Amino acid sequence: MKLPPWLLALGATLLVQSAASFMNQCLPVVAPLLTASTGVAPERIGNLSSLTSFGSVLFLMFGSAFLARLGPVRTLQCGAAISALALVLASSGQWNVLVLSALLLGIGYGPTPPAGSRILAATAPPRHRTLIFSIKQAGAPAGGALAGLVVAPVAAAYGWSSALLLAIVAGSVSALAISPLRRMMDSERDITRSIHPRALFQRHNLLAPVVALRGSRLLVTITVLSISFSMVQGTLFSFSVTYLTQRGFTLEQAGFAYACMQGAGVFARVFLGWLADRTGRPSANLTAQAFIAGALVIVYGLLPVDASLGLTAVVSTAVGFFGASWNGIYMAEVARLSPPDRVADATSGSTMFTFLGYVAGPSLFALAVPLFGWSVPFVAVGVQMILMGVFQTFVLIRLGRARPRLS
Predict the structure, then answer these.
(1) Which CATH class name applies to 5-176+205-399?
(2) pLDDT digits (tens, 9 = 90+) for 3-56
(3) What residue ranges do the domains of the chain occupy?
(4) Staple 366 to which of 3, 46, 287, 339, CB 3.0 to 4.6 Å?
């Protein structure tokens, strides 16, 4: 029985998204062991997370030419190879090398949003577009959950550098598994597109992702909302394991709570994507979600010092459900609001700004922890999310609607 193209596309993008996230989340998961072995303060893991996000920004700035020339599948494979190399370098345990590996890890992750969107936008049935994009994006917390459940115990038993080998294998296997799909999904690649460094720095190439955002006011506003969400998610994913171990939990216990957070995001991305298709108002759904996510981040930061693992896991699950499940709806809206021939550029531009939130959130959080402890920075992150929800509400009211109902 021949599978429909959209199902093959979803399977390929979901696999790569999961593996990319698994590799990307390994450093935050082993952060307590990593920072201790390199002799730096625990909150310095935020600097590595910010560098990883900045690496993704670099790809999104310059990567459009590579995506056009190589095709989405080959670009995803190259990204997986770069991420695997980054983790090989990270296993050296030298802080200066870790800085470089974090940057490369972000560059390797960079192709995942635009390449995945290009593949799905060309194949997904319009009636189920948000759900399909959300299923693909569910691979991100799925990979993170696996990192918490698998990498943390292995790192505790055999050392954090040994645990990174699991992620290297996962990335390599995923890259090989999607090779048979190149003929179908890379058929429209532009072999005349130059990837010479001189061409990459041309004004047209640099501005293409940003220019593609100007086609819709709602596209701009949803990008602004995504920056706020990315600050929440980046902070939660970067610091949760370290935050919980600082409160007395073992690495395995912190990894379990982290897996609960990520696992909730898997289910929530699919469920909330389905709900957005049913309501026909994805932007309004995201705005309501912003208020709930912000409130739960505040609760997470104000957990009692003697909170049990059970209570911590419950709160982690709730904050993961609402704070790490916005991505699929957001990506589907960007694809829907973009002209068909500009989906990759618009996704690159919007995601580039979104990743600036991933850069800023962990960096500012790392600066705040030595001054205020752990609770105040979490509260600040939650408050900014709520304020952004208020702003977005006024924008939607001014537009007169969240967006036209989907047909």
Answers:
(1) mainly alpha
(2) 777 888 888 889 999 999 899 888 888 888 888 888 888 888 888 888 998 998
(3) 5-176+205-399
(4) 46
